[in-house]
Specification:
By secondary structure, the protein is mainly alpha-helical. The protein has one domain (2-244). 67% of the residues lie in helices and 6% in strands. The strands form 2 sheets. Strands 1-2-3 form a 3-stranded mixed beta sheet, with helices on both faces. Strand 4 and strand 5 form a beta hairpin. Helix 5 (86-101) crosses helix 6 and helix 7 (153-162) packs antiparallel against helix 9 (201-244). The chain is globular.
Length: 245
């Protein structure tokens, strides 16, 4: 990760995808098992509460897109904030970027500085999850990424990128701007200025919005295409192993 972050934010995001994509197949199975267990326990339709360890909550192509209950929204919040590795991966990634940039400068370097940046990143991400959960519930907005019911790289890519800025309302048919998500990012970023040395309220808020936009597009794209990529990788692995014998 150090070698990735040294080249800048966008290169580091690309490195994150490459370095973590290999674990997506395992995480997919684990996520689906957790979802099935919760659904069986609470009588909820399977496929509505998938949470991938990297790119978050999603709805498979073959699952109906149904409005979430408050109980389901609470379960998604708990998973995405505490019990799945996604938020911790995001925390380490963003803290590594800040460490490489030396931002904030007053926190210094080394393990002490990195520890402060880790704590700050996790706190901000957790607060954003709280705000977005409450905001989306109040608006009746869809918090999950719905995989495209289409085919072709271009249509699916367009769908993934647009879903970073648009989501369904309570009807699960009408698209609306992601007010809850970006309002939460803005609020959490502004709040983080309280504990940052020389924090700037609006600057920190808009930086958080920009980060959410970039990571949102990246993770949506990954959520759309990761199953296809991992299937191809799993097919190539036996071939490579056999040729090495």
């Amino acid at each position: 990760m150090k070698s990735c972050v040294a080249f800048g934010y966008h290169t580091a995001m690309l490195c994150l995808v490459v370095s973590l994509l290999g674990g997506s197949a395992w995480s997919q199975v684990s996520s689906e098992q957790d979802t099935q267990e919760f659904a069986a326990r609470d009588g909820i339709t399977t496929g509505q509460l998938n949470v991938n360890w990297l790119y978050g909550a999603y709805v498979p192509k073959d699952a109906p897109l149904s409005p979430l209950s408050l109980n389901q929204r609470r379960e998604l919040f708990l998973r995405q904030t505490f019990t799945t590795p996604g938020i911790y991966v995001k925390t380490v990634f963003l803290a590594s970027i800040s460490q490489a940039e030396g931002s904030p400068y007053e926190w210094g370097g080394g393990f002490e500085g990195y520890g402060r940046r880790l704590a700050s990143s996790y706190a901000q991400s957790s607060i954003q999850n709280v705000f977005s959960t409450v905001g989306n519930a109040a608006l009746g907005y869809e918090p999950r990424y719905d995989r495209c019911r289409c085919s072709g790289v271009k249509p699916r890519t367009k769908h993934a990128l647009m879903r970073a800025f648009l989501t369904y309302d309570y009807t699960e048919q009408e698209l609306r701007p992601q007010f809850g998500l970006y309002g939460a990012a803005l609020g959490a970023g502004m709040l983080s200025s309280v504990w940052k040395p020389k924090g700037e309220l609006w600057s920190d808020g808009f930086k958080a919005v920009s980060t959410q936009a970039g990571l949102g597009m990246l993770f949506n794209w990954l959520g759309e295409f990761a199953p296809d990529i991992t299937r191809r990788l799993s097919k190539r692995t036996p071939t490579i192993a056999n040729s090495a014998r």
